Amino acid sequence: MHRNLHTLLAAAVIWPVTSLAQVERPRDAEAPAPVATEAGEKPVELPRWLERRLEDAPEELREFFLSDEGVGAYPKPERLFEKLKPKTREATIAYIEGMKFLADEAKFDPETDMASIPLNTDSSSFNSWKVMRPKEMDPEREPGPININYYASSRFGIATFAGAPVAVYPEDLEAGNVDVAIVGAPLDMGSGYRGQRYGPQAMRAVYGMVGEDMATMIAPEQVLTIVDYGDIAVDNMSTEISVHHVRERVREIANAGAVPFIVGGDHSLEYPNVAALADVHGKKSFGVIHFDAHYDAGRGRAHWITHGQPVYRLVKEGHVDPASYIQVGLRGPWPGPDGFEWMRNNGMRYHTMAEVEKKGWDTVMTTALREAREGGKPIYISFDVDVLDPAYMVGTGTPVPGGLTMREAIPLIRGLCAENEILGFEIVEVAPMLDPTYATALNANFIVHACLTGMAMRKEGFDDAGYYSDLTTEHRQPEAGELGKAEGKQVEVDEGYAWSPPGQRRAGPLDEGGESPQL
């Protein structure tokens, strides 16, 4: 149905939320006439007064109004009827003519519209943006990850994801037995809100992607071999062109035996990322857990791929089984009833924030973890940062209040990555220029850290989402202190500590005269 078109015409009619039970039925509409709609949908009932009003209307106009482009395109047709009832017959006909004009003008016209965007194929630099640098132009070296920093500490020098070594070619991934290759994909032309192209740059610049996880006392970089695989080239004049190259590069990582972690970029990237893994592992061979405020299964738009359409395209092309696709965190005005009905009809499971309000976070989290394990399939995690509440994620283009907290998101992601085989992970829609602080990039890094920790837990044999370190969750006092004292492990008091160099006078903070000792 062409719902997007008629939203413009009927915004004042549709948006006030009024149920059928709340609409007073006119006296002359006791026996409404059904209107044909799309297959599988309940027919719209046309009031008799409106049926009579249209009896002498032109046949073409009448057919339009009774079609799914006319009254059938309205989610709440009774509101349209309320709008039309006070009008005269002539005004009603004129209004419907206006509806038909909008519907006709919105369609593709081969005489005036471009069916595709022409490109200058004679350009000598047509593919220059994605040409691989020949290896022969660089000094010869053995394949494997490369440490590019002068200092032993990764906090200084050239910034990389997770402070990790760099891999340039698939041979580097294979020779280094790399577990995780983190790659940037600075694409933001799939969104009406720009700036996501700077996500990889911002996330490399701040900490949080690795280090000790206090909940489990596991440092993922000590268990997993992690590399920075650079940024994938994109043509920021064309999302359609770019996604094909992204698919090639993600497929390259998976074929080398590493798990791709893609840092976006906007959510258009989910399409090439998941399709690439389907190329390698087989279509419908894995599940997808999709964290987002929006369901991103839009369809029927002029462009085949945007940041609001990857889910539908993946399902439509058969890359994923909708029954193995789980949505988490949905809220706000989109989707409407038709979107939820589409998910239900296709076997897709979803967990909205409304469900969290109704059942509680613990119940919803337990259900999502259980559903992810069902069938024993590996999973791919798509994490749109706007699933988080804007209090934690200011720098994103389409924030929606009422989202997940970081305290809710971290254990859920860690648990998913511990309990399931992970084929890939993406974090998208980080738009750092919308955030005057570094909190957006920092929190995004900690989400990645949660999954890396879960993968490290699984590799170490801790595949239970409920695992927590006893050391950090139980102080064990007074028994632990008493044992430490008995074993001579407690701190010995030294009043001169830090007040003089070793071997010199250590009289304490104040000498006998009441003045500090000379250091």
How many domains comprise the coordinates?
3
Tell me the name of the CATH class of the largest domain.
Answer: Alpha Beta
Number of helical runs? 18
**Overall pLDDT score:** 89
Report the principal-axis shape: globular
For the biggest β-sheet, the strand order reads 4-3-5-10-9-6-7-8
List the helices and strands in order: HEEHHHHHEHHEHEHEHEHEHHEHEHHH
Key words describing this protein structure:
10 strands, 8-stranded parallel β-sheet, 35% helix, alpha/beta, 18 helices, 519 residues
Entry summary:
This is Agmatinase family protein. Helix content is 35%, strand content 10%.
Describe it for me?
With 519 residues, the protein is α/β, with parallel strands linked by helices. The protein has three domains: 3-106, no CATH class; 142-459, Arginase, Chain A; 476-519, no CATH class. 35% of the residues lie in helices and 10% in strands. It has 18 helices and ten strands. The protein has helices spanning 3-14, 48-53, 59-65, 77-84, 89-106, 170-175, 199-205, 220-223, 239-255, 270-281, 310-316, 337-345, 353-359, 361-373, 406-419, 439-459, 470-473, 479-486; strands at 33-35, 44-46, 180-185, 226-231, 259-264, 287-291, 325-330, 349-352, 379-384, 422-428. It has an eight-stranded parallel beta sheet with strand order 4-3-5-10-9-6-7-8, with helices on both faces. Strands 1-2 form a two-stranded antiparallel ribbon. Helix 7 crosses helix 16, helix 9 (239-255) packs parallel to helix 10 and helix 15 (406-419) packs parallel to helix 16.
